[in-house]
Design a protein that fits this description.
This protein has 20 helices and 25 strands. The chain is an alpha+beta fold. The strands form 7 sheets. Strands 13, 18, 19, 20 and 22 form a 5-stranded antiparallel sheet that branches. Strands 14, 15, 16, 17 and 21 form a 5-stranded antiparallel sheet that branches. Helix 17 packs antiparallel against helix 18. The chain starts with a helix and ends with a helix. The longest helix has 73 residues. The chain has 5 domains: 64 residues; 99 residues, Sandwich (Apoptosis, Tumor Necrosis Factor Receptor Associated Protein 2, Chain A); 129 residues, Potassium Channel Kv1.1, Chain A (2-Layer Sandwich); 132 residues, Apoptosis, Tumor Necrosis Factor Receptor Associated Protein 2, Chain A (Sandwich); 129 residues, 2-Layer Sandwich (Potassium Channel Kv1.1, Chain A), CATH 3.30.710. InterPro entries: BTB-MATH_domain_protein (IPR052664), BTB/POZ_dom (IPR000210), MATH/TRAF_dom (IPR002083), SKP1/BTB/POZ_sf (IPR011333), TRAF-like (IPR008974). It comes from Caenorhabditis remanei (Caenorhabditis vulgaris). This is BTB domain-containing protein.
Length: 665
Amino acid sequence: MSKKAAENEEKRINNTLSEWTVEKFLDMRKEVLDRQKDLEKSNMEMVEKLRLYDEKIEKLEKELQPKLNETDKTLKPEISSEMEENNDSAVTTDPVDSTQDFQENDEEMMSTSGKYFVLKHTFNNVSSFKDGTYYFSEKEEHFGFPWRICVIRCDGFLGLYLCHLLLENTEKKWEIEVDYEMKIMSPSSREKKEKSGGKGCFVFKMKVKKMTGIYKENLRSFNKTMEEYSDVVLIVNDQKFYVLKLYIATHSPYFKNLFSGISNETENTEIKLYGIDADDFQKYLEVIYGEQAIDEFTVEAILMVADKYDTPVVIEKCENFLKEKSEKTLKKKLELSNRYNLVAFTENKEMMSTSGKHFVLKHTFNKVSSFEDEKLYRSEEEEHFGVPWRIIVRRHDGFLGLHLCHLLLENTEKKWEIEVEYEMKIVSPSSGEKKEKSKGKICKVFKSDATFTASGYPQFIEWDELEKDFVVDDCFCAEIAVKVKKMTGIYKENMRIFNKTMEECSDVVLIVNDQKFYVLKSFLSTHSPYFKTLFMRKLNEANKIEIKLSGIDADDFQKYLEVLYGEQAIDEFTVEGILMVADKYDTRVVIEKCKNFLQYESEKTLKKKLELSTRYNLAALMKECLEEIESVSDIKSLIPGDVHDLNPSIMAELFQKSLSLHNSN
């Protein structure tokens, strides 16, 4: 073969190989595209099948519901009753079958992703229940709604009711559809049938199926007017939301997976969502789209939807609202942080500082016209957190001086210090329009080696202004709101050590006001649900962790730990501070020990015991205090400077006492 012929043959072979390579590449490309189409078709078929199943289930539910309702009517008599509260608001009960067997497992009744909660309350002194009188549990807020349990003894039966506390007959129409299950159980830890010593425990298991008309007006529209700006329609309870797949998928892995099998079709795809309310989903979308839709009513439901659809940006916004703006109770915040794993929120010291050592001194000064210049006039002594306090006023150079005074001994061998922040005001005692004059907050540190025991304003108000605007019937009211920021050296010597010498026997360090406490997580978690939640994600960490606690004193926490570890640390000085810490951290064993001390050992005044029993819900102590009232003077000693500060239930009991004392005379 000639050289030229060889070159032509090589060129032919190369061209053939090139054509073959291109052909093979095109075949492979066609195969990949075919597989992708098959995959998309398969995904679409799966989505369509799921949609058809959902529609079939919904259709079956609609077909069966009338039959079930008819069966329910034939099997159960309707029980409908109305009851009047003290404020004349009517509450209507729903039909209930009292013979129904209760399920032991809450999850059988409630889905884990819906609006559900449990109301539980122990009613005390059941043997003293009067016929025809309503008894109420404390108010609890769930999903923006206040709820409570109501019971009544009537004609040999106990009536049990679920109450909401929303206003009736308002201009705005609202509706709540609920499923609930009620039961009565013995509070005893032993056999259920055992008598419980005058107590009864009542439980409501609630599932809110639908809520409408509760929230404020919508901040953004997702209705049909947004159709041209959307590529998918999400349907919740027959309400359509027109949104962009890409935007929603960017914020939620759940929706990213849901939309992955849906191609970019010309017409909007419709997808039904279950287990949520349309109003809640509306607010959830508003937050995703940048609106300020989170408030006290919406935050819990938005958090629930955001958790269901795994939307971190919305969860974080709800968490920030709860930390920085919400006025919900500490108990409610901890409940939400536990349910939705808001660990950073649980540890946030701003939230934890909402409870602390605070009290208000109030006194009405009489015979003001006879006040002598330079003479001191004092209120009665009041003890708070182991320290006696009183208000002092003085007329001086045409002014009224107002002072906060403690009654601790000065210049003692033991060094002590109390740092307080207080605010003073003068109030007219008139039952009409109240006038008041106040000054800004003052910070003061009282010390054992200080010369003066009082702090305040020598010229709080001009005497002429006082007489003109604030003196009524020759008297005026003085009020000082006090927050104890720090106390040291007041209590007796420590009974147990929690410092660095205990490091080997501990696995966590709790820091209070820069003082470190070395303790065991498992021991604290056993006694306190609060610490159980706090430590939940830290139990398996190899390195010792440090956690700051705020809103309490190191001395009080020391005594709280001592009681928890079995020491006899409760006395007249420590009991209130220990009780405050135990209530803050939900430690029943410590609360019970404080209650027993107040009930059987303490020599505190009847007024102080009643105050603590009301603040910390110590029912047995409250009952004993009321039973100790034997005269009208006893009743007068319990009345605070402002009668409106008295707990309504206590006020009713005192009124009953006064009537019985009057009739006996």
